[in-house]
Amino acid sequence: MGQKVYQMSVTFAIIKERKNPPDRRVVFSPEKCQEVIRQFPDAKIIVEASDVRIFPDDAYRKAGFEVKEDVSEADVMLGVKEVPIAALIPNKKYFFFSHTIKKQPYNKKLLQAILANKIELVDHETIVKKSGARLIGFGRYAGLVGAYNGFRALGLRDSLFELPKVETLADLDAMKAELDKITLPKHIKILLTGAGKVAHGAKEILEHLKVKKASITRYLSQKFDEPVYCMIDVLDYNKRKDGGESNKLEFYKDPSGYESDFMRFAKVTDYFIAGHYYGTGAPYLFTRKDAKQKDFNINLVADISCDVDGPVASTIKASTIADPFFGYDPKTEKETAFDAPGAITMMTVDNLPCELPKDASEGFGDMFLANVIPAFFNKDKAGVLARAQMTTKEGTLTKRFSYLEEYVSE
Ligand SMILES: NC(=O)c1ccc[n+]([C@@H]2O[C@H](COP(=O)([O-])OP(=O)(O)OC[C@H]3O[C@@H](n4cnc5c(N)ncnc54)[C@H](O)[C@@H]3O)[C@@H](O)[C@H]2O)c1
């Protein structure tokens, strides 16, 4: 970031979340704020008063932090979701998820306002290693809640058990305690796609339930007397059209030479947990036509990746925390009741980590403290801030984000 960032003392503000429905998450819990100060005595933290945050204002006061209505004295504003244009403070540095890096039309005005207000923006999504791998995010919590929600749908639909909604539970431990009370159907086969934070979060739930992991060969060919899951990555569910050898980096770069090889899994799977990252132009895992096939066996999907009208054809919409389940009728290609006969039961909540605000905030704070805060006090020696910064104090886009020029000038 600009020169000022490397000053010896930096004041951070934990800002209030202003999106609706309210997001209860925060970058740093009161305890994590104390840890920041312990590790970096030149850091100062102030807190903007909030009535929605999972940790009450009083908890920050008790931990020794000032809670204020006006935090404009801070150098760096730390938030989670988009800051409404009216609440932006000019000439500050901000961290939040802006949802602009894929040129999302609904946030174009926000990025324009950020530039006009000469704000230096770092989007949490842009905080990456040199290799491009993301350093921080809520993916693990999306995986945990998404996999749980799928089991909750199964229990309700087939009258097997009743799991409470995650948002009614205190934390991850309480969620796991609920899972300890259920028994899964003996022959259920579960497929999990992905290799990142989401997929590993979902895997934690499967492992907590003691679901056995099966290799691809065994999963595809055998019947089991106990619940099993199989975890697959891009080259397992895609193959080269010319029959040649597949290559992951080649696939990431240009997937046009590949086609889906997902149906072999769809034929034997009951519950599909989608936790993959879908790159533009990649083959769809399954299409609406595939879902009509007699041997398409999947009847429950927790689509955590949640690309609407995309690679998971039955994801015809994102669902909400309030109303998380719906049915997809493969025959009519339309929405139906989540428990309608012949329907694929769908769970497509797109803000899953919000259901677990305490754990999600604590986990996020750990990553932010380890990977971002040091950069303010070590002259950004790992280049984290330099790579991540999207806009400058002169009101321009940085080089890495110059591809957004057209988007912001329209
Ligand atoms: N529903 C929700 O609430 C929610 C919350 C968080 C994330 N998500 C979504 O879940 C998906 C996975 O997120 P994550 O946190 O696990 O991501 P991640 O960055 O941790 O992992 C992504 C994985 O995809 C791989 N990858 C990179 N480029 C790829 C490409 N072009 N094609 C295929 N794979 C590629 C990476 O090697 C990595 O293993 C994303 O689409 C994300 O938007 C949903």
From TrEMBL:
Signal peptide positions on this chain: none
Keywords: NAD, Oxidoreductase
GO biological process, one term: lysine biosynthetic process
Alphabetical list of CDD domains matching this protein: SDH_like (cd05199)
Active site annotation, chain numbering: K81, H99
GO MF, any single term: saccharopine dehydrogenase (NAD+, L-lysine-forming) activity
Residues in Alanine dehydrogenase/pyridine nucleotide transhydrogenase N-terminal domain copies: 13-145
Superkingdom: Bacteria
Record-linked InterPro entries: AASS, AlaDH/PNT_N, Lys1
Pfam families hit by this protein: AlaDh_PNT_N
Annotated residues for binding of NAD(+): D236, Y277
NAD listed as a keyword: yes
Entries under SMART domains matching the protein: AlaDh_PNT_N
Record's keyword annotation contains NAD: yes
Listed PANTHER family: ALPHA-AMINOADIPIC SEMIALDEHYDE SYNTHASE, MITOCHONDRIAL, SACCHAROPINE DEHYDROGENASE
Protein's UniProt name: Alanine dehydrogenase/PNT, N-terminal domain
